[in-house]
Each structure stands twice: as structure tokens, then as C-alpha cells.
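Sanity check

After download, print the first record. It should look like this:
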Amino acid sequence: MKATIDTQYSENYGAHAWDGEGECPQYWKQKGGTTYVVTDIPIGAIGSQTLDKIIQAADAHFGISKFNDYCHEYIMDTAFEEDNFIPYDEKLQMEYSGRVTYKSPTVTFKELGF
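Expected C-alpha cells:
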């Protein structure tokens, strides 16, 4: 099994001209997101408590959650998927160019310390 973690990335365009004094101007734009993948999850480890633990470990491993004056990245959705699951951005690359040039960030269940 795999676990997928889909994020939303936002950039504060107001911060580009900010001099660091006073409050940072707020002008947020959604910039897409990323699908992070955890592979090689044993069937016996599947469950909601395990998914929560996987998400926390993957968040720490990849540094997913970001909240500062310049950008935000936060988790939008999580799921368990079958081993043959292909993230949407990789499907688009296959449709467009016939190959995957930029793979989704991936880590194994064991590499996360489980």
C-alpha cells in the first residue's frame, strides 16, 4: 500500500517588495501543490491512527508544513492507495511527454522509522 499527502502551496506576492519593517503586506496567490508519497506500507499497518502517524512522520521528513510571511504550504488531503497508484502530476507528465521527468517526493514506510 501507499499513503498520499496532497498539499496546497500559497505565495505572498505582497512580501516581494516588503522591506521587513512593520507588518508584511498580504497578497496571497495559490500556486498549486505537491503530492507526497509513502510507499511499502504493510497491509497490517493500515488504519486511521496509522495514517495520522504516517502523515506526521512524512511532514517532518519532507518539511511539508510551512507558514511564514512569504509562503504557506499545508496538507489538503490524505489517503491510502494501492501500490499501482500514480499521482496526478505524474499522469499528466506521461500524457504530455510520455515519461515522468519530475517524480513526486517519495519515502518508504521503513525510512520514516516504522
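If your output differs, re-run the checksum step. Summary of this record's structure: Residues 2-19+28-108 form one domain.
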